[in-house]
Amino acid sequence: MKKYNFNAGPSILPREVIENTAKQILDFNGSGLSLAEISHRAKDFQPVIDEAVALIKELLNVPEGYSVLFLGGGASLEFCMVPYNFLIKKAAYLNTGVWAKKAMKEAKLFGEVVEVASSADANFTFIPKGWTCPDDVDYLHITTNNTIYGTEIRKELDVNVPMIGDMSSDIFSRPVDVAKYKCIYAGAQKNLSMAGVTIVIVKDDELGKAPREIPTMLNYQTHVEKGSMFNTPPVVPIYTALENLRWIKKMGGVEAMDKLAHERADIVYSEIDRNKLFRGTVNAEDRSLMNICFVMNEEYAELEKPFLEYATSQGMVGIKGHRSVGGFRASCYNAQSIEGVQALVKCMKDFEAQH
Amino acid sequence: MKKYNFNAGPSILPREVIENTAKQILDFNGSGLSLAEISHRAKDFQPVIDEAVALIKELLNVPEGYSVLFLGGGASLEFCMVPYNFLIKKAAYLNTGVWAKKAMKEAKLFGEVVEVASSADANFTFIPKGWTCPDDVDYLHITTNNTIYGTEIRKELDVNVPMIGDMSSDIFSRPVDVAKYKCIYAGAQKNLSMAGVTIVIVKDDELGKAPREIPTMLNYQTHVEKGSMFNTPPVVPIYTALENLRWIKKMGGVEAMDKLAHERADIVYSEIDRNKLFRGTVNAEDRSLMNICFVMNEEYAELEKPFLEYATSQGMVGIKGHRSVGGFRASCYNAQSIEGVQALVKCMKDFEAQH
């Protein structure tokens, strides 16, 4: 039976990206060697990283003066690299959930941290509004999409300080005004690649200002100066990212991804709002287009497990909600097809008809 | 033409490891999803990491009280994680080359560093002998194999302090007395997997003693407590490691790898010593079995480029020496076949006959 992959991450990738990766692992560019066993210094690999950087700059319209890096360790490592490199005295954080809290925790090791707002009291079911950010902070950190709670900041915030954005789960799903950021980072395993690589976009002239000695590998300058080749980068995950970037461009770029994201989300949220069994968990205006969270209406609470079983039997994979929210989560990253969300909606309708 | 992969890293992997990885990337365990797009929390993936950990413990005969971790960031990130976690007051480092120096540089950010010995004055052509290590250090750090210079510490050192070993380029090529170490780490892209994962073996009761706050991701305790699942681990590189660990076991374990390493190295070093064109660069007793470095004898210096071209034309890949040494480097990791080194030796003989 055809499977529909709604995993929150690592998550669905375009089939051609997967097939091209497997092909290059068997024989890289007809070299007789596997992509897994070539040197990162090989003359065949530099073009991979160069093209990937160029495509990221093109797709996100990255202004002059920014560098694009491929690092290991995941976005969680960036939680400490960001303050190590950018926190001079005081930083502001918008608390929209688990990942924002984790980022804030690391920043407190390096300086003063101001929480500008939080929706913790409401189990992060909305993005806080109407707050102000102090003018004297080094940056405002935001998590643009909250994978666990299903909220998203999809429109650029209007603030007076430079931002740092954790865009792990919505990068490349929409245009971004990169000039508003000192740094953007994203674990690749949602919209970009397999797990094992993190992309970081940094504003070059903001580096080197922090009043501390930074371990070499944690210093963004190290990686800027060496073009992500200070040490051996994760070759295969970078290659898969390149294949996916090519696919995004071919499909029409981040504007097309944005349009598709709206189409997919409209299909699922409309059904959630219509179906008597289900309700969304997030305030309507803050609903994520990437991670669609919903639960059983209270009078049908006992149907949660049966629905999960039914949907699984129909080929849906990874729709169990995170334990912090319960219920269901349909992750709809770039590679999620309209057919996939229609299949999910059919499950919801059929299950409603059965009960 | 058949290619023989002598790359220093990322480097040769057994063909079945590559083919099985490609197969699982197309369809993981018949699930209909790619290995690249499954959740690391999927019930199919936990057995992967569990089996990989168990095989590492079995193959290296790891004593009770040690944890095996899979991390991102490469061995270069361990250069700062090691002192972050283990340097309480003073640490000793044996300086055997570029990687040892880099490790030492990071340690100096955290405490006093004693260089117990160095072969820098001789361009690291030997492993220093006859030195003593202070008794009051927290650990002695050694680089067991020096990829660039072609030296190796293949027999456990007899010292009175616990060691920390960077075994990036010779792990799983020989038995190791793990009990002598507080920590062993290795970037996987030599003897274990594709680039993108680092394995770390830590002695649990040595953790938590450092007098500093450690960023969460840099604290080994974080990863021990979460079984390498604190954040998304590099799923595909870990899977490839598992395939390679299965291969090593099937081939007879690290004892068989050790025997093969000696056989391969004997074949190449014997030819270097016999052939009038070439000479080894390293003192005979410290020659690495993993990275065999050699140069043209002075009277044949002008044949360096022609030999490289000839060997390349015969299918040899990656034998150009590192710029710090010049000449040639034949890296002979676990997956290097006897056929491969014989093909290299044939090139050397044929080229000698032509000149």
TrEMBL record, chains A, B:
Keywords: Amino-acid biosynthesis, Aminotransferase, Cytoplasm, Pyridoxal phosphate, Pyridoxine biosynthesis, Serine biosynthesis, Transferase. Catalyzes the reversible conversion of 3-phosphohydroxypyruvate to phosphoserine and of 3-hydroxy-2-oxo-4-phosphonooxybutanoate to phosphohydroxythreonine. GO terms for biological process: L-serine biosynthetic process; pyridoxine biosynthetic process. The keyword Transferase applies. The keyword Transit peptide does not apply. It catalyses: 4-(phosphooxy)-L-threonine + 2-oxoglutarate = (R)-3-hydroxy-2-oxo-4-phosphooxybutanoate + L-glutamate; O-phospho-L-serine + 2-oxoglutarate = 3-phosphooxypyruvate + L-glutamate. It comes from Xylanibacter rarus. Its cofactor is pyridoxal 5'-phosphate. This is Phosphoserine aminotransferase. Belongs to the class-V pyridoxal-phosphate-dependent aminotransferase family. SerC subfamily. It comes from the Bacteria. The modification N6-(pyridoxal phosphate)lysine is found at K190. Signal peptide: none annotated. Pathway: Amino-acid biosynthesis; L-serine biosynthesis; L-serine from 3-phospho-D-glycerate: step 2/3; Cofactor biosynthesis; pyridoxine 5'-phosphate biosynthesis; pyridoxine 5'-phosphate from D-erythrose 4-phosphate: step 3/5. Pfam families: Aminotran_5 (PF00266). L-glutamate binds at R41. Coiled coil: none annotated. GO terms for molecular function: O-phospho-L-serine:2-oxoglutarate aminotransferase activity; pyridoxal phosphate binding. Pyridoxal 5'-phosphate binds at A75, S76, W99, T147, D166, Q189, N231, T232. Residues 4-344 form the Aminotransferase class V domain. Homodimer. Binds 1 pyridoxal phosphate per subunit. It is an enzyme of class 2 (transferase). The lineage of its organism: Bacteria, Pseudomonadati, Bacteroidota, Bacteroidia, Bacteroidales. Its EC number is 2.6.1.52. InterPro entries: Aminotrans_V_dom, Pser_aminoTfrase, PyrdxlP-dep_Trfase, PyrdxlP-dep_Trfase_major, PyrdxlP-dep_Trfase_small.
